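thought: user wants a sequence for this fold. calling inverse folding tool.
action: design(structure=
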């Protein structure tokens, strides 16, 4: 595996989720992601259809389910700015529910516009087994550009520390959905 991955659709990126042994953790910082497989579902959601899913969701849910049934943990914290963007409303309403049902521990860390949680980077990353760190880079519109493997031991330790801070400060997806008026999981 190289030190840069240019597509989230690549086999190389997919192998990250089949090769970890214990934990996969994601910090999400953006308020809008522009990924090809979600464009149509997001467009339909914004137009008022709340029962949409992206066509790759069953495959991703299978990855989560296989990992969790094999004794692995998949965790994610999304720092979300309130008021919520249309994309975050889509993600919360239509996308995260199946992941949680499959066993992913998704947590939400809400902040007000212009604020950011102390001690957390304002960037996305995946950390596998607390030792394999991949920095996720997006353009200004939220389109994925590349993932870079970070080999610096100090950066890897910092990412683990940030994971612990984020998990401690965030609330579960289910709790956030209960607390947030106007959000309801799609059926």
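)
observation: tool returned 187 residues.
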């Amino acid at each position: 595996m190289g030190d840069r991955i240019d597509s989230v659709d690549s086999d190389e990126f997919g192998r990250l989720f089949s090769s970890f042994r214990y934990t996969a953790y994601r910090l999400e910082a953006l308020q809008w992601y522009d990924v090809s497989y979600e464009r149509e579902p997001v467009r339909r959601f914004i137009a008022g259809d709340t029962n949409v899913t992206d066509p790759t969701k069953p495959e991703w849910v299978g990855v989560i389910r296989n990992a969790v049934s094999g004794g692995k943990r998949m965790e994610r914290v999304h720092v979300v700015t309130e008021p919520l963007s249309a994309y975050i409303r889509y993600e919360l309403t239509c996308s995260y529910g199946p992941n949680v049902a499959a066993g992913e521990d998704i947590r939400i860390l809400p902040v007000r516009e212009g604020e950011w949680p102390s001690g957390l980077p304002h960037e996305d990353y995946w950390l596998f087994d607390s030792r394999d760190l991949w920095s996720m880079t997006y353009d200004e519109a939220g389109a994925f550009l590349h993932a870079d493997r970070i080999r610096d031991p100090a950066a890897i330790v910092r990412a683990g520390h940030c994971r612990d801070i984020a998990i401690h400060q965030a609330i579960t997806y289910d709790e956030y959905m209960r607390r947030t008026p106007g959000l309801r999981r799609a059926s």
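thought: summarizing for user.
answer: Here is the designed sequence. Residues 4-179 form a domain with the Endonuclease; Chain A fold (CATH 3.30.870.10).
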